[in-house]
């Protein structure tokens, strides 16, 4: 895709639109010396070189990649106007786009036409909103989430002044259902957070089983699909359908288009199955809502000002890569195929050991050290990561995840537990190009051992 061509097209269309309102003279206070601008821009470009190559498949560290060119063009097109999707008065066009993309996300999760939702600036804020509604519906009752859930849930429980209950996980890093039921029996929990795709291991928690248990104790179920939510598009292929299909019966769900939706930061989304929860957001503004009797997006969100450009970027992207298995789903499928194949290669390796079978596009593994102890594994994993990212020639960028001695014992009892835990190597293969680059990446890891 020729990004330069479409950026020029966007700029030309913007100039054509602004010309319809007549010429005017920009204020002198806004004028800058071209030489000064050129110098400042050169400095900016030089400073931006102090980044890791998120665009390249040699970067397999964190959940980072550049947005799709369509997202860039869509975002820029709207950013030049700078609409605010808080109210229809601030962005009628992008507010309509937001409704369209949110409707698409809702249908992807099986919510149908009756739902409530909007884009947010992040998954953190999206989860905050879901827990805010949960607190409003179950005052005095806390929130349960697995010990492998994202730290945002414990943090947001603190913000909302509600009690958080970490639930132990099983040998695959998923919420322990017996422990969950024991907690629910106490009556202290009003909401259970379930994660189909944990951020450390990519483990798919059994949404359908959690839902069955939670309903027996009158508890809401919130799905944190910030990382894994878009894998719903692959349900029923080589991913078990049941956890993903159960999302349609859960009370709320969060997904981050700025992760697997190919969008720039920040673009999260929160959706509620029951649109009546909008009553908890109701407020009035004497100067904001005046051009329309329709429900303004700011009336159903905790955030006020929000970038309409985020909606435009997502809208244009989904016009080209729709929310289907053959559309955006193929982008995710490529990364997952890469993860599954790398796991197969690691299993045959004499130098590496697979820590846990990948379920989505995260692979965890560690060097086979001598002696095979947690302290040796920890040191070797850290050394490989550090050496790879700091190599002057042919660097690769990995990350590490910490695993407790109990987690190691459940997966690898052959590793001597001489310390409390160890770091293992962790690679996120969320760029589809990882599929073609995998052999090179694997060979480079072996060279670092």
SSE series = HHHHEHEHEHEHEHEEHHEEHEHEH
Average pLDDT figure: 94
- Which bin fits the share of residues in helices? 25-40%
Strand order of the largest sheet: 1-7-6-5-4-2-3
Ordered list of secondary-structure elements with their pairings:
Blueprint: H1 3-19, H2 34-47, H3 69-79, H4 92-108, E1 116-120, H5 123-137, E2 142-146, H6 152-160, E3 164-167, H7 177-184, E4 189-194, H8 207-216, E5 220-225, H9 241-245, E6 252-255, E7 268-272, H10 308-320, H11 328-347, E8 352-356, E9 362-367, H12 374-390, E10 399-404, H13 405-411, E11 421-428, H14 434-448
Parallel strand pairs: 2-3, 2-4, 4-5, 5-6
Antiparallel strand pairs: 1-7, 6-7, 8-9, 9-11, 10-11
Helix pairs in contact: 1-3, 3-10, 4-10, 5-6, 7-8, 11-14
Please describe what this structure looks like.
The chain is of the alpha/beta class and 449 residues long. The chain is built from 14 helices and eleven strands. It has helices at 3-19, 34-47, 69-79, 92-108, 123-137, 152-160, 177-184, 207-216, 241-245, 308-320, 328-347, 374-390, 405-411, 434-448; strands spanning 116-120, 142-146, 164-167, 189-194, 220-225, 252-255, 268-272, 352-356, 362-367, 399-404, 421-428. Strands 1-7-6-5-4-2-3 form a seven-stranded mixed β-sheet, sandwiched between helices. Helix 6 links the parallel strand 2 (142-146) and strand 3 (164-167). Helix 3 packs antiparallel against helix 10 and helix 11 (328-347) packs parallel to helix 14 (434-448). The two termini are 38 Å apart. Residues 285-293 have low confidence and may be disordered.
């Amino acid at each position: 895709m020729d990004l330069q061509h479409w950026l020029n097209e966007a700029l030309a269309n913007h100039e054509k639109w602004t010309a319809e309102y007549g010429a005017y003279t920009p204020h002198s206070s806004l004028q800058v010396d071209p030489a000064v601008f050129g110098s400042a821009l050169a400095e900016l470009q030089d400073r931006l070189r102090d980044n890791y190559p998120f665009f390249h498949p040699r970067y397999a560290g964190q959940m980072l990649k550049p947005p799709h060119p369509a997202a860039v063009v869509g975002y820029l097109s709207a950013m030049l106007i700078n609409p605010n999707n808080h109210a229809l008065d601030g962005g009628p066009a992008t507010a309509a786009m937001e409704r369209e993309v949110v409707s698409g996300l809702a249908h992807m999760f099986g919510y149908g036409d009756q739902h409530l939702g909007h884009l947010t600036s992040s998954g953190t804020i999206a989860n905050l909103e879901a827990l805010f509604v949960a607190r409003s519906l179950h005052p005095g009752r806390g929130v349960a989430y697995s010990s492998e859930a994202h730290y945002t849930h414990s943090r947001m429980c603190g913000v909302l002044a509600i009690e958080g209950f970490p639930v132990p996980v099983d040998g695959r890093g998923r919420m322990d259902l017996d422990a969950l039921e024991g907690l629910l029996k106490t009556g202290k929990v009003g909401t259970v957070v379930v994660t189909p795709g944990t951020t450390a291991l990519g483990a798919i928690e059994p949404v359908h089983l959690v839902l069955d248990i939670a309903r027996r104790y009158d508890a809401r179920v919130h799905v944190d699909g910030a990382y894994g939510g878009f894998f719903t598009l692959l349900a029923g292929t080589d991913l078990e359908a049941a956890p993903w299909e159960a999302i349609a019966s859960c009370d709320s769900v969060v997904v981050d288009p700025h992760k697997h939706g190919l969008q720039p930061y920040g673009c999260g989304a929160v959706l509620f199955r029951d649109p009546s929860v909008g009553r908890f957001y109701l407020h009035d503004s004497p100067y904001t809502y005046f051009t329309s009797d329709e429900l303004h997006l700011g009336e159903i969100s905790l955030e006020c000002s929000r970038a309409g450009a985020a909606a435009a970027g997502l809208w244009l992207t989904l016009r080209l890569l729709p929310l289907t298995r053959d559309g955006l789903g193929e982008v995710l499928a490529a990364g997952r195929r890469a993860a599954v194949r790398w796991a197969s290669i690691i299993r045959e390796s004499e130098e590496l050991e697979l820590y846990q079978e990948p379920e989505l596009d995260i692979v965890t593994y560690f060097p086979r050290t001598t002696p095979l102890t947690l302290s040796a594994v920890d040191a070797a994993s850290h050394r490989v990561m550090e050496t790879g990212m700091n190599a002057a020639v042919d660097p690769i960028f990995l990350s590490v995840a910490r695993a407790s001695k109990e987690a190691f014992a459940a997966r690898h009892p052959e590793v001597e537990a001489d310390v409390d835990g160890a770091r293992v190597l962790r690679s996120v293969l969320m760029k589809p190009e990882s599929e073609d680059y995998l052999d090179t990446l694997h060979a480079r890891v072996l060279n670092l051992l």
